[in-house]
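To illustrate this point, what follows is a protein record of this kind.

___
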Amino acid sequence: MKYYLVEPEVAGSYDDDSQVDRSVHPPIVSHLNFSFDDWLGDAIVQSFPVYVVTEQAQHEIRKAGLSGAVFDDMEVSLSGMFEQLHSDSNWLPRFVWLKPEGVADKDDFGTVQPTTLVLSERAVDLFTRLGFNHAEIEPYVP
């Protein structure tokens, strides 16, 4: 199976309501409030060191039986920039926190270096079907 290094769209950041231990690198986020600055439509987005996916993507990942993906609840807020760009936020889908806990080059979701996302070809194909137009993707060679 082929694997890929993936850098999803940066659609915002975790805000002050998040609980983050910045004394270590990468920071450890224990509670996530993701503040969207914009959203270009991809089913997965990021803000170092966290990844979030649409609820539809979560459902499809589970349905496909992809390995290495753990999900957690999160809060979503909209930045002033988002509100300036979009007069209506009702079109924004629901998102969940994706925690890639698999092994790169073995599971469908994993990380290297220490937070670069590695996805299997099956995971890339799934995201491509759901919306994956703004991510940087390159082959992963262990």
